[in-house]
Amino acid sequence: MEALLQHEQGGCQDIDFQGEHLILDCSACVFWPDEKTLMVADIHMEKGSSFASKGTFLPPYDTGESLIRLGAALNAWKPKRVISLGDSFHDDTGASRLSDSYVEMLESLMRGREWIWIGGNHDPSPPAGLGGLHSTELCAGPFVFRHQPVSGIATGEIAGHLHPSARIKRRGKSVRRNCFAGDGERLIVPAFGAYTGGLSLKHEAFEGLFDWNKLKAWMIGRETIFEIAGRQLVG
Question: Where would a tag sit more exposed on the chain, N or C end, judged by fewer CB atoms within 10 A?
Answer without folding.
Answer: C
